[in-house]
């Protein structure tokens, strides 16, 4: 069976299809994998390096964006660009609440040992 990975290898790593992005920063079994522009839940789970159940729970709780396309309950697709943008926005948000230094300063826990 001729796979996309074999196509990528035969093209010597040249990106001939703009609908896919090479995962060049990944080492190990997924090195050289190209991610499709639209992903089903299984592919999205692999893309995010988590289980399908975790992806479904995170979508249900609103942590991950809803599917970009969902014409039927069983046919759901997430846009890679939407998922990437969602994480870019989340990483730019300022954390609300006390810093770890404030939490530790107000902590009643006594540390043993010492410097």
List the keywords.
115 residues; two-stranded antiparallel ribbon; alpha+beta; Arc Repressor Mutant, subunit A; elongated; three-stranded antiparallel beta sheet
Structural account:
- The protein is of the alpha+beta class and 115 residues long.
- It has two domains: 1-36, no CATH class; 37-93, Orthogonal Bundle (Arc Repressor Mutant, subunit A).
- It has helices spanning 4-10, 41-48, 52-61, 80-92, 100-105; strands at residues 20-22, 34-36, 38-39, 69-72, 75-79.
- The protein has a three-stranded antiparallel sheet. A two-stranded antiparallel sheet has the order 1-2.
- Strand 4 and strand 5 form a beta hairpin.
- The protein starts with a helix and ends in a 10-residue tail after the last helix.
- The mean pLDDT is 75.
Short description:
With 115 residues, this protein is an alpha+beta fold. The chain contains five helices and five strands.
Structural classification: alpha+beta
CATH class of the largest domain: Mainly Alpha
Task: Estimate nothing, just give the exact number of structural domains.
Answer: 2
CATH fourth-tier homologous superfamily of the largest domain: Winged helix-like DNA-binding domain superfamily/Winged helix DNA-binding domain
Q: Walk across the major sheet and give the strand order.
A: 3-5-4
Outline: elongated
* Quaternary structure type: single chain
The N- and C-terminal alpha carbons lie at a distance of 62 Å
| Average pLDDT | 75
Strand tally, please? 5
Q: What is the CATH architecture descriptor of the largest domain?
A: Orthogonal Bundle
The share of residues in extended strands comes to 5-15%
Number of helices: 5
Low-confidence stretches: none
Sheet having the most strands: 3 strands, antiparallel
